[in-house]
Amino acid sequence: MSTEPEIVGQSPTHPARKHYSLDSIRPMYARHALLGPAPLHAIPEHSMAPSTAYHLIHDELIMDGSSRFNLATFCSTWMEPEAHKLMSETFDKNMIDKDEYPQTAELEMRCVHMLADLWNAPDPRRTIGTSTIGSSEACMLGGLALKWAWREKMRKLGKPTDKPNLVMGSNTQVCWHKFARYWDVEPREVPLEHGEVVTNPKKAAAVCDENTIGVVSVLGSTFTGHYEDVPALSEALDQLQQSTGLDIPIHVDGASGGFVAPFLQPELQWDFRLPRVKSINTSGHKYGLVYPGVGWIIWRTTEDLDPALVFNVDYLGGQMPTLAINFSRPASQIVAQYYNLIRLGRAGYRAVHEACREVAAELAHKIGKLGPFDVLSTGHDLPVVAWKLKEPTNWSLYDLSDRLRDRGWQVPSYRLPANREYVIVQRAVIRNGFTHDLAAMLIRDIERHIHWFASQPGFKASENGAGFHH
Fold this sequence. Notes:
Shape: globular
Largest sheet: 7 strands, mixed
Helix content: 25-40%
Strand order of the largest sheet: 3-9-8-7-6-4-5
Order of helices and strands: EEHHHEHEHEHEHEHEEEEHEEHEEH
Distance between the termini: 57 Å
Number of strands: 15
Structural class: alpha/beta
Number of helices: 11
């Protein structure tokens, strides 16, 4: 081993530093690779020790906010150690290789059948569905199935198929707008009116015509957490069919509510108990309690999915259908979803979501008592609390969001969709792991900032804030 010192850091203002060779043992922050800035936009010429690379990235990521204090996201931010272990053991498995990893494929199909049963499909064991990278991909598949079914119907009637449209509320998630643009479908938005926070079912039915491939109903609006009235929409479309002969299907975007309503509102008939509901998507990584990276879509029956959208691969000497848009991805999230389903069971999911709803109800009550706020949702549908200012003041909710970051809170403020853009709301998503104690801390910080604004009579309210993506 060489003992000759290396000279680094020579400059007119700083004398040269002497460090021993790369083979010598030295403390972390005196290592050669850390003596200057790491390349940001080009691959470095030389290698570095694994622990050095780890600490470089680890220290930089400290600048990110704490996921536990992120009340904007619906995504899960906590899982059990056993789930961590299963996920680490399956990161290297490519879930698309069903013939190479047949047991992963089996777990995926078990999850599909479990969700079909949870959502009251007529024959859960014989229906069809798939995992996806998230509910956005699942929405794309749901929209494609609607378009393919509509196109086949129109061809049999000898009618043109060049002007499909999809009816949805202006409060739908942006993925539906992506679907419409990418697959050349006209988006027919039903705007919110007169105090509405979800889509009016009769207005949605009224804009349908023979070119409507389906209507999207959202079970859990990202804006306020409210469920849309799927039974009322189904009834409105039944009446439309009686008067016009148009048979319009429903797709339920249950990104969040698909894993909540069966446990907290089991009597609510939003799912396959309504014959007009042909497909449902959900996010396993939201209230399915899995880390980000898994979604699901289930069709009511195999007849509700055009066979042209299904590809078959060899599986244990037979054929396994596959229909996801994404291809290679790790099996770990599927394994984690199956873990949660068998580990928690219906009773466990109910207990977790009831605890979240209790925290949401307490938070809503205390926010209402603070004085300046009107509470729009109290966690009665999703465990989500949303509020707005009662009247204009010298500060806005955007300002409050900025101030709350002083202790790491990420509480989004944003405008409602058309035609209610003039309403600015603030929202907190209550997830597994957000406790009564954390809720009390949040209330104290909100109150502290209200007092600060009151002490600053010259403060001017901001009209816009940082971008927020639902």
